[in-house]
Each structure stands twice: as C-alpha cells, then as structure tokens.
Write a structure and sequence with these properties.
Blueprint: H1 2-21, E1 24-30, H2 37-56, E2 65-71, H3 76-88, E3 94-97, H4 101-113, E4 117-120, E5 137-139, H5 144-158, E6 164-169, H6 172-184, E7 195-198, H7 205-217, E8 222-226, H8 229-241, H9 244-247, E9 249-254, H10 257-263, H11 265-268, E10 272-275, H12 281-285, H13 288-301, H14 307-326, H15 331-338, E11 342-344, E12 349-352, E13 359-360, E14 363-368, H16 371-376, E15 384-390, H17 392-395, H18 399-408
Parallel strand pairs: 1-2, 1-3, 3-4, 4-5, 6-7, 6-8, 8-9, 9-10
Antiparallel strand pairs: 10-14, 11-12, 12-13, 14-15
Helix pairs in contact: 2-14, 3-4, 5-6, 7-8, 8-10, 14-15
Length: 415
C-alpha cells in the first residue's frame, strides 16, 4: 500500500513537472513604479489579454504561454538586470517591454548577450533601432524620425513661419525627438526657435515652471513639449495654470491615451500630437481585428486601450506567429521569420524591416477633442481626432539615411 502511494505521488509530481516544462515563458520588463508607470500598466493589461486569448486557443505550437513580469522602475540598469534574470533564472524565450528608450536599449543589449530577442514596446528614440540597434532588437512602435515626419507634415501646413519653443527631456528619447522635429519642421535655428532641457529622470515641478517661464518670455506661438508620462502631465498642468495653453499651440510629439486621461479633457483640449495607434482608429477605418481587441480590452478592464497596450498585445501575437512559421523557438530562426514579414493586425499593413528591425507602419497625427465629445464615450476616453497620417514607407528612414547614422556613430552598416 505504501509503495502504491509513493508511486502515485511520484506520478503526480512528474505530471506537474511535465506541465511546467511544456510552458513557454516570455518576459515582460516594464515600469510598475516611476514617471512612466501608467504606460507600463497599459502594457501589462494588453499582454495578459493576449496571453489568455492565445492559451484559450491552444497556445503556441500546443504549448501554453506563461508571462513572467519584472519592474524596471524606468531605470536602465534595473531593466538590464531584470532581462538577465528573466533569461538566466526564469528561462524565458523572449523579453519585451520598456517605456524609456534608455531602458529598452540597455535591456536589449542584455538580451542579445544571452541570444534572446528583445521587443521594444514603447521606445521612440531613433537610437533603439538606429545607432544602438542590433540583431536581437525589434521595435514594434514607430521611432522619433517617423513621428517627426508625420507631425511636421501637419505643422508645416498649419504653423509655417511661426516660432517654436522646445521643452525637452534630457535623455536619448528627448534628444531624438527634438532633433527630428526641428529637422522636418524647419526650426533648426535655435535663436529663432529656442529651447531648454529638463532633467531626466528626476525633474522637479520647479524645473518645468522655470522652463515654461522662459517659453512665456519668448515670442513663440508653438510650444513643443518633448516630455512623456508624468513629466508631460505636470508640465502641461503648469502651462495651463500660467495661461500658455491659451496663447500657444501645444504640441506633444508622442501622445498616449494614458497621458491625456491623467491631464483631463479640459486642459488637453486642442493639444496636437502623434501616435502609432488610437482606439477609435479601427472603427473609423473598419479594421475588424482592431475592433475585436478594443472590445475585448474594454469589456475586461472597463477601460479603453492605449497605444502601449496595443503594442504589447501585438508583440505577443507577432512572436507567436513567428515561432509557428519557424517551427521552433530557436532565436536565430525566429529572427529570420520576423525579418521582412508583412501583416495586418490591429490597423493597416505593417512590416518588420529586415535591415534595422524597425516596424514600418502608418503614423497618425491627432488632436484632442472637446470635453463634451470625450465624455460622451462610455469610458470617458474619446480623446483623439485623427487629423492627418503618413504611410510607414514615407515616414521611415531609408537604408541610406540609416547607414549614414550608423557610420556617424562608428557602428557597422548592417546588423
């Protein structure tokens, strides 16, 4: 009798071990705390929805997905440490995440050293797939160059010959965005179009007020807030209190639903920005899979999804499809499966460009709607009017432009 019980116990333990071994782990490295925590939470919500849907449909090649998460705190060193731990200790097959580009770049290098793919979920610096790009980094959203080309197309039509004032976060993303917007909006003359850098990641409200005071003293008609997350929220609130939103056109180059909700509809009204995706896009352009995602997300969380939620959700499905096309989780084979792949998922056609692993996709210019329209949505989140767009092929750097940046950084001209 005792022998039979031991055999039964061993079988149960073995069964548990088999189930665990057959789970395909993927790692999400996102900020649960810090200035970008709201954007991090949206990634988590989108990721869990994708994992649950995929597992209900049978997993990836018959294996259930398991999502392992870590808090990057928005700090590059922590992001890299988390990535190493996810791969070395947890055995994940790929890692994705990042809100700060500095975090994504550091994390991507840690993944490359361990022969794993890193998908950048919310990283807009040109460097991510440019000067710091490598074979194991894939970026799902657009980059600063693409943002600037689309946004400047609109600004050059409606705000040509006006003076700009730039308030920019002093790190790789901020530098990339300001440089790119200046280039394409013809505002590279820093005497006519002044600007100031604010500390990152620990800017104080006094830093933003001092920067805004300089903007107020200028003759600028366009206030370019190259800030993100809580930094943008605090700066825009201060600009409203100082009356600057009434006398200047406020532009937030990378605008997300979470940031808009944090500021609120009254202050946000009329703000212009760019986005790779907004939740009303699938309804306006009749993208069925995009509508399915919005409905599933909204019903599950009683919240509209932001672009960062859509990015995390898309990445998991893209990884699943790449593994199934390759027939393996072998990193080199999955990379080859991704390179050049074209697909339509939550919007129109996108593709993973082979030479830099940048996701090439349509870029949208948006303007925040009036308060009454925003609040009429069941979730009080109908923030964005799509006022312009630019195709991904028109927006993205050419091979020659990308190679020129690589050479200037002393990097090889291929991944």
């Amino acid at each position: 009798m005792m022998f039979n019980k031991l055999v039964l116990a061993a079988c149960l333990l073995l069964g548990s071990a088999v189930v665990y071994a057959e789970t395909m782990k993927i790692g999400l490295n996102y900020p649960q705390t810090g200035r970008y925590k709201d954007q991090g939470l949206q990634q988590r919500l989108g990721a869990f929805l994708a994992v649950d849907e995929i597992n209900r449909a049978g997993g990836v090649m018959g294996q259930p997905l398991e999502l392992v998460i870590r808090n990057s705190r928005g700090e590059p060193d922590q992001g890299a440490t988390n990535t190493a731990e996810l791969i070395d200790s947890e055995g994940v097959q790929m890692v994705f995440g990042g809100v700060s580009s500095a975090v994504a770049i550091a994390s991507g290098k840690a993944a490359q050293a361990r022969n794993r793919i890193y998908f950048g979920t919310l990283t807009y610096s040109n460097a991510t797939t440019g000067s710091e790009g490598h074979s194991h980094m894939f970026r799902e959203p657009y980059n600063a160059w693409m943002t600037a080309k689309a946004l400047s197309q609109y600004l050059n039509r409606h705000h040509a010959d006006q003076n700009y004032f730039y308030i920019t976060a002093d790190y790789t993303w901020g530098w990339s965005v300001e440089e790119s917007v200046r280039k394409f909006s013809n505002t590279e003359d820093t005497e006519a179009h002044q600007g100031v850098k604010t500390p990152f990641p620990r800017a104080l409200i006094t830093d933003f007020r001092q920067a805004l005071e300089q903007a107020a003293e200028s003759d600028a008609e366009v206030l370019m807030l190259v800030l993100f997350g809580d930094d943008m929220v605090r700066a825009l609130n201060a600009a409203y209190e100082m009356g600057l939103t009434k006398r200047m056109q406020v532009v937030v180059p990378n605008l997300t639903l979470g940031m808009a909700r944090q500021v609120g509809p009254t202050i946000m009204e009329g703000v212009v920005g760019a986005a790779p995706w907004v939740w009303n896009l699938p309804y306006e352009n009749n993208y069925p899979r995009g509508k399915e995602f919005v409905e599933a997300f909204s019903n599950r969380y009683e919240l509209r999804p932001s672009s960062s939620a859509a990015s995390a959700y898309s990445i998991i499905y893209q990884y699943k499809d790449a593994v199934e096309r390759a027939g393996t989780t072998n990193t080199r084979n999955v990379i080859r499966s991704l390179e050049g792949h074209r697909y339509s998922f939550l919007k129109d056609e996108q593709h993973w460009r082979a030479f830099d692993h940048q996701n090439v996709q349509t870029v949208y210019v948006v303007k925040v709607k009036p308060r009454d329209t925003i609040m009429a949505d069941p979730f009080s989140s109908d923030y964005f009017d799509i006022i312009d767009s630019l195709s991904g092929d028109q927006a993205a750097q050419t091979l020659e432009e990308w190679q020129a940046r690589r050479l200037a950084a002393g990097k090889p001209v291929s991944l």
